[in-house]
User: Fold this.
Amino acid sequence: MKYKKLGKSGIKVSEIGFGAWTIGLDWWGKKIEEDEAKRMLKKAYDLGINFFETADMYGKGKSEKLIGEVFKGMRDEIVISSKYGYDFSNA
Assistant:
């Protein structure tokens, strides 16, 4: 896996990230069960991915919860990007 420095922070981020909408939503395909989602996250990490993108709207926090469960105690080894505040009711 190739990594890039994140600005001047010194943090190294994998060039390929894991978009966690796939484990939180089923809008564009089949629902992914929690055990399978956890295996996907672990496999991504094992392949060198340390950048995980998520949002509160991905399953109403489901993807954030799964990332937290899988990487509990490993916070200094991964980079998490999260968005918040997406509101369908005002669209």
